[in-house]
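User: My advisor asked me to double-check a structure prediction for DUF481 domain-containing protein before group meeting. I don't want to rely on an old file, so could you generate it fresh from this sequence?
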Amino acid sequence: MKTLAYLAGATALAAAFSAPAFAQSEIATGADAAGITEVNEQMRDVEDAVRDDFERSSDAYRFGNPERREGTFGSVALTYAGRTGNNENQDFSLAGRLSHNQGAFSQSVGILLEYGEDDDGDTDTEKTYVIYDGLYNINDRFYAFALGRVATDGLAGDFDGLTAEEIADQEGRLKRDAFLGVGPGYRIINSDTTAWRVQAGVGVRYTKKVDLDEPADDPFVSDTEVGYILSSRFYHRINENFFLTNDTDYLTSDSNDTATNELGLNFKMSDALATRVSYKTEYVSDRAIRTDNTLGVSLVYGF
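Assistant: Sure, here is a fresh prediction for DUF481 domain-containing protein from the sequence you gave:
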């Protein structure tokens, strides 16, 4: 419980400081016509990006099996926009998540549906995503995990009404992309101020993508390959106002090698001010420029 209390105090930094700063979201009557609503939505996008950056430091399982809601629960969210007038199009999205926690075992399943039509009334988006995340704590140190993902693109390989250039752009587009990985994990350090856990696993990836060299009635090629993943999650609290995280992932398969590392420094500079500075490096072996680097700075001030 003591270690969980330390973790909650540190990784809840965003919530503690963002609440005052992000609370004011009321918009006056007439805001739509005056253009105020559009600016307000852009402000919310910035606020959401800052929240996401702070939440990137959070890892509920750094110190073992955390206290969490037991049983089965979930949520569903839906958005739809249909436009007429200068623009004739529509967009639909549906997202849902179902979770189940029981003792040492926790798992969740999520689904995302996306559908859209362009100004000509033609479908330009038809995608489905399903993800799975499972974790079983064997003891305070050892655990087992499972990760799964399935993505489908209903428009991949559909050449009806496309120009020659648009058909050429379909080369390599994924019709289906699925991954399932399992493996063990171990918490190397599990103290009040420092937590370091590593996990390694084996996974299978299946892809079905467009290949224009195949017959027009079945322009797809399928591939199944084995991949290996290694991950590290490190957390260290220097004092009550400063903690750092370093998250590393490495995935290798026959196709390529991918590695990411993100170092995050989180500061509580006052009762009203919090800052996060992060540096992320992403490496992909088969790209022309293999490494991308991103420096991120997020600041929340509440008053």
